[in-house]
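Much of the work behind modern protein science is quiet bookkeeping, done one molecule at a time. The protein below has been through that process, and both of its lines are reproduced in full.


***
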Amino acid sequence: MTPQPPQSQQPSRTPRPDVRPDPEAGAAVKAADRAHVFHSWSAQELIDPLPVAGAGGAYFWDYEGNRYLDFTSGLVFTNIGYQHPRVVAAIQEQAARLTTFAPAFAVAARSEAARLIAERTPGDLDKIFFTNGGAEAVENATRMARLHTGRPKVLSAYRSYHGGTATAINLTGDPRRWPSDNGSAGVVHFWAPFLYRSPFYAGTEEEERDRALQHLADTIAFEGPGTIAAIVLETVPGTAGIMTPPPGYLAGVRELCDLHGIVLILDEVMAGFGRTGKWFAAEHFDVVPDLLTFAKGVNSGYVPLGGVAISAEIAATFARRPYPGGLTYSGHPLACAAAVATIEVMADEKVVENADRLGTDVLGPGLAALAARHPSVGEVRGMGAFWALELVRDRETREPLVPYNASGEAAAPMAAFGAAAKKHGLWPFINMNRTHVVPPCNLTDEEAEEGLAALDAALTVADEHTV
């Protein structure tokens, strides 16, 4: 087992309470949910939500007394785990001082959150527009780019997710876009690099990078550079598969944007705030975007908050011209107080450094070892506390364990894998033929080893579906 960092670097952790069963309370919670809650992305009669009794640190538990190690971080947002005492206290203190206030005023928590975020964003992204979440951040970043350039089109990648609101869902490249895409949103999709399933017949990372950049350059040329306001990319795509871009790709996109006067928007809603082992994933690639969107890990999801970090040039566009956008709860004091406390916790407890070390010393080697043992693992990829396992039926052909966008019986092998993980006390992140390993960034080595052991057992079930 990898040695723990010195005690001075150990994070303060929420104590693990005794998990005592209360099935009657759980049944009441579930009954009310089924009677009244309308769930997202779901056929309402085909889902079976688990009633959750509580959570702390990297764990949550149900009313039956079962405790799960959460390798999903909620929806990849509890970067410091559940119920961190310092953040809970900050929310309580802010509620006692000033629970809410309109966004047109200067409020201490809002100002301090913006300052702390601006200190950590790359380059001159020093102005912060607050939203309630990531989709609204993408909506507003896209609006800013269109107004700044006076151009209508926006380019985004297939194998991407940018949110569920009108523009964000059209920018999205995965099947969740299809029911809302009427082809009139001014969005053009292109192929970003992904060597394991290369659309460019590349054999090396260098070939994949160069061919992907040429494809993007050709797309820009044929769409008309003067019509394109922005290129929107997840710095490291999240839900779509955690495909780390090859060295030089993002720099090449930056050059294309500069050449044609196109705004570069990097979506760091999932990859930001320590998830990749840096405050923002853009730092890995030495690229500064014109706009950067964030949410999720900014306050570990404790109170909804997102935002856009804005470059000096784009901010200047709206110095004497009103920006035509806003939200009632922009920069909500409770959310901003949670962000201030979360950023301070991450700095004091070296959470970003811990995520980096976990990726290098624990999760990376541990997942590679699992891949060597299990024929169902086609590829392991990631960094920090941000990893994906590509599960396949056949390593040679790379046939996915389940078909693209599978459901029902066609998705049964992944469902069996997920059930096995839960049986061993691990709550897995599953999307299509992949499982993502995205635990809290302050995960301990012992918790990581516990999760890897559960994955080991669950992958044995996935192996049964290989050829």
Remarks:
- Residues 1-15 have pLDDT under 50 and may be disordered.
- DSSP finds 14 helices and 16 strands in the chain.
- The two ends are 33 Å apart (CA to CA).
